Amino acid sequence: MSKRHLVIAVSLVALLSACGVIRGDDEDKKGAVTTGVTSEPCPIPVDRNKGCIYLGTISDLTSGPFAALAVPITQAQKAFWNRVNKAGGIGGKYEVDVQAYVRDNKYNPETHNQVYQEIKNNVLGLAQTLGSPTTAAIIADLKANNVVSAPASWTSAWEFEDVIVETGANYCVESMNAVDYAVEAYKPKTVMAVHYAGDYGADAAAGAKAAAERNGLEFTAVETPSGATEQGRAITEITKNKPDLVILTTGPADAAAVIGQSAAAGFKGRFIGTAPTWNPALLKSPAAPAILALYEQSSPGKPWGADTPGHKAMREALGNVTPSDGYTSGWAWSYPLKAALEKMVASGDVSRKGLLAAVKSLNTVDYEGMLPPEAGNFAGDPNTATFRQTLINKPDTAAPTGVTIVKDFYTGPTAQSYTMDGPCFGKL
Amino acid sequence: MKGVLESLVRGLGNGSVYALLALGFVIVYKATRVISFAQPAFMIAGAVAVSHLAGTTGFYLAVPLAALLVAGLALGVERVAIRPMVGRPVFVVAIITLGIDVVVRVVVNGFIGLDVRQVGDPWGLSLVEVGGLAVQQRWIAMLLTTAVLVSLLFAFFRYTRYGLAMRAAAFDQETALAQGVSVGMVFALSWALAGGLAAIAGTFAGTGQGVDQLTWIIALKALPAIIVGGLDSLGGAVIGGLAIGVVESLVQSYQGDLAPWLGQNFAVVTPYAVMLLVLLVRPYGLFGTPEVERV
Q: What UniProt keywords apply to this chain's record, in alphabetical order (chain B) (predicted)?
């Protein structure tokens, strides 16, 4: 063998070895049951004799627009799974770890995809994938690899994805119910949707449009960019056209800018904002008087202080924290995943495919009273499985998260009769 | 007509924030020939400092205190990170300022936390009636403060020794050095001034709506303002800032009716559209000094 051939042969062996072909890296890691599940205990175990199911978390943890909600969501989920582990884990065989693979997406779809690629081979599913556009960046991969994920967003697109286990009504249904509620309470004749672009804002605006059409109301949609100083146009449109009802889908700071400055300019109509428009800190902003006078919040779930076993367990598990409905949402979002994991372990097929099969067989989920059990229907077709009940809250300085319920879970006539045959935001 | 005037006042209010920021950019540029991308960080640092101080000292004392604090911070940054780079290509220094911006903002974000912080200003969203127009008080406050600051600044450059030194150094560094001007001092002073102005701009950007971790983005609108006004013209920075504010506000109010085919949110890009238009007609900005090169 010439020297040259020797060099080539040696480099080839080195290359294959580095790729894991010769060393046998393809074999499962020690103790691995399947991707993201080990027979070894979790890093912080309650019971060392149980295996560990790893779930990833991709959230907006530092500098994105929803960080004020995302951090409590993530903390609540940590507490939720800790409680599950303390109560005997999943099927008595596994505990769940949601702390080993937590990543920050900065609410940026590229970052979201990048950090997802980092962790995807180490987790069975995702305990949280925050945001609609961000999750859209990884949805193809989630589907291709059967990665069951709990979203932290309420877009109607999730009704059509098997791997996404959503909790609570989507923005589209929420805004249909908001308009139907307002029709009863305030008898509006004109409705304006002030919304961000994309599958958060446009989803809600499409719902408002459907409800306005059904009720024979005049409807306009005003798309607005994010940033409190960028709301000038939205404010002008509101004060110029004077709609009787404004359906808001923005972040909290922008909502405050729109409500506060419209009211300052003499606007006296009503505002109903989707759940993410609210943040208790708004009650300390200069817009507070206007918010107290004109604003209500539509919501897919009851606020922090509600009296249900689930809310109580959450408050006990979290202890002495500043109340935020980020906690409430994060906690509630975890129930379907818990139900699916239990079903998967009971079936004996502990794998991504097994988990997806378990999800598809869920007709109801026990939310411990936080939501009706039928909110956890993942078995039916999207139109029958879509949960259509939402609530209306009003700002209340005495309430722990600044809002109290004015109308409990209800389905308005529009949502009742609406056929969910595709994501709403495409129909605006 | 009333709508136009109200829109105009809103534009002048926001524009004065851009103008203060733009002045900072121009002062640093004139002294060092570098565009300092650290201005957004100093702006947000100022607003956050006021939001923490206002509770104990009251808003009116908190603003100058914060301006001094941030000026001190800018001075320190200049001494540590910029001065050692004297004589190096300006491009390198500009990139360093980008790094400084990121570092300072990360630290400041720690002081913001996750919620919106209120700067504790006395105006809130209150209105005042001016000749039949309902005008937000904070816009008038912004405009007045900017007018006072700009007058003081121009007086400083015109009538004080340090101002003269800065103008001399800006005109020709070597000659100024030969005449005994401490160019190092000029650099330091320009950074401090830019930091202080940015702090005040940040505070005003936070009035009525508070500051959060994304407020710094407003500072980027000062970039088209300085290009419009001319990179090396202080007056140009003020006019550029106000012009950008007014055009943006008018477009927000009227583009939907007059030119709906431009899409719903054309206002977001108007500062840059105006910048491109001005560049087409006057490549050195409205008041910039044209460079003459003889070949």
A: Amino-acid transport, Cell membrane, Membrane, Transmembrane, Transmembrane helix, Transport
Instruction: Give the total number of structural domains in chain A.
Output: 2
Residue A77 included in any domain = yes
In terms of residue numbers, what domain contains A407?
Answer: 171-301+390-427
A vs B, Cβ pairs < 8 A, gives 97
Alpha helix locations (H) across A19-104? 67-86
Q: Does A261 sit within 8 Å of B208, measured CB to CB?
A: yes
Give the nearest chain A residue to B115 (CA atoms).
Answer: A68
Work out the minimum CA distance from B126 to partner chain A, whole angstroms. Answer: 7
| pLDDT at residue number A104 | 95
Structure tokens at B14: 């926001």
Whichever domain contains A243, its CATH number is 3.40.50.2300
- Provide mean pLDDT across the span A412-417: 96
Distance CA B253, CA A312 (A): 48
A312 and A283, same domain (yes or no): no
Say what percent of chain B tops pLDDT 90.
63
Is there a contact between A252 and B116 if contact means CB atoms under 8 Å apart? yes
Predicted confidence band of residue B90 (pLDDT cuts 50, 70, 90): confident
User: What's the Rg (C-alpha) of chain A?
Assistant: 24
Say whether A304 sits in a helix, a strand or coil.
Answer: coil
Q: Do A233 and B267 touch (CB under 8 A)?
A: yes
Q: Do A62 and B218 touch (CB under 8 A)?
A: no
Q: Do A228 and B210 touch (CB under 8 A)?
A: yes
Q: Is B262 on the interface with A (CB under 8 A)?
A: no
What residues of A are in the B interface, CB distance below 8 Å? 62-63, 65, 67-68, 71, 222-230, 232-233, 236-237, 240, 252-253, 256-257, 260-261, 263-266, 279, 281-282, 284-287, 290
pLDDT for B210 equals 87
Answer yes or no: is pLDDT of B289 > 90. Answer: no
CA B194-B200-B206 angle, to 5 degrees, is 130
What are A259's strand-pairing partners?
none
A239 within some domain = yes
Query: Do A335 and A415 share a domain, yes or no?
Result: no
- Name the pTM for this structure: 0.86
Q: Does B209 touch chain A (CB under 8 A)?
A: yes
Please give the Cα distance from B186 to B190 (Å, whole number). Answer: 6
Pair A64, A185 in one domain: no
Which residues in chain B touch residue A326, judged by CB atoms under 8 angstroms apart? none
Q: Is residue A7 part of a domain?
A: no
Is the residue at A382 inside a domain?
A: no
Query: Which residue has 């693979």 as its token pair?
Result: A101
Residues A63 and A99 in one domain: yes
Same domain? For A115 and A185 the reply is no
Question: How close A19 gets to chain B, by Cα (Å)?
Answer: 37
Chain A interface mutation, best of B4, B12, B125, highest count of A Cβ atoms under 10 Å: B125
User: Looking at beta carbons, which residues of chain A come within 8 Å of B6?
Assistant: 265
Are A297 and A312 in a shared domain?
no
Q: Are A355 and A148 in contact (CB under 8 A)?
A: yes
Q: A25-34, A416-425, B177-186: lowest mean pLDDT where?
A: A25-34
Same domain, yes or no: A352 and A404:
no
In terms of Cα–Cα distance, which of A167, A153, A254 is closest to A204? A153
Domain boundaries, chain B: 2-219
- Max mean pLDDT among A16-20, A181-185, B228-232 falls in A181-185
Give the separation between CA A345 and CA A188, rounded to whole angstroms: 52
My answer on whether A208 and A354 are in the same domain is: no
**Helix or strand or coil: residue B161?**
helix
Q: Which residue of B has its CA nearest to A255?
A: B209
Q: Which of B115, B125, B213 sits opposite A264 (nearest CB)?
A: B125
Mean per-residue pLDDT of chain B:
91
Q: What is the pLDDT of residues A59-109, one digit of tens each?
A: 998 877 788 889 999 999 999 999 999 999 999 999 999 999 999 998 899
Which residue's entry shows tokens 């817009």? A287
Q: Which amino acid is at B256?
A: G
